[in-house]
Alpha/beta hydrolase
Amino acid sequence: MTETRLVELSAGPIEYLDSGDGPPLVFLHGAMKDAEVWREVVARLDGAYRCIRPTMPLGAHRLPMHPDADLSVAGLAALVGEFLDALEVSDVTLIQNHWGAAQIMLADGHGDRLGRLVLSACEAFDNYPPGVPARLFARAARLPGLLTALGTALRGSRFRRRYAAGDATVAHPLPADLADRWLLRFTDPAIRRDLAKVLRATYSPADKARWAAAAEHFTGPVLVVWASQDRLMPRDHGPRLAASFPRAELVEVEDSGTCIPLDRPEEFATAVLRFLKNGAFRRTVDPPPM
């Protein structure tokens, strides 16, 4: 049974889905999506694990954050750490897609509760925000009135269908119920304000280098899952990311965009289950040549 719960954090209220019993798995979604992005994956996992799926303030959340909340990626990573503290979970397997929370948490001292990582088609190295589509959207978000105009247009079902059809994170059409759920939330001005903070934040090369360097100090097992048709994450970042951790394995998924939990949920769940049952990993990906 899945329960919808709420926790009050310093930045604002965070809703999360909680199901199953056993070792905790915490799932993080990407921009303009919510916890339901993981529904097909969790359906294959939560008999043996406690699956915790927070909806982060990334543009498809229901409850807005406080006006002064720090919603840069570093602020969001700190919020994930605060969320884990509030739930008092430890030895967590953090499973992320699209954004690079785990690397930032490790670099900024928020990784004490993390035991294992599953990094799927996510920001890494210099790729913040990820890919040309996300960088163009981030630039557009700085134009006065653009997000407001988009939010107004998304009230119309025909425009929502067209917008969802152009989603750069998937290789296959978004389920209609999820597209409506996510895009209709963006019509709320307070939700747009939150996403604008995410999009308008900037990061220096030194920030990105520091986040990347944190990988070598994480001693837990890591699974990197990368997609063959990803338009946002460079293909070579998968092997490179796996090679940056001492104990990592790489799995590449065909016929999928960034959002592997939607495009290929069965393959994703199979890879995660095998990873969780396999115990310790040796280094399986050699570092790239200097």
Summary: Residues 280-288 have pLDDT under 50 and may be disordered.
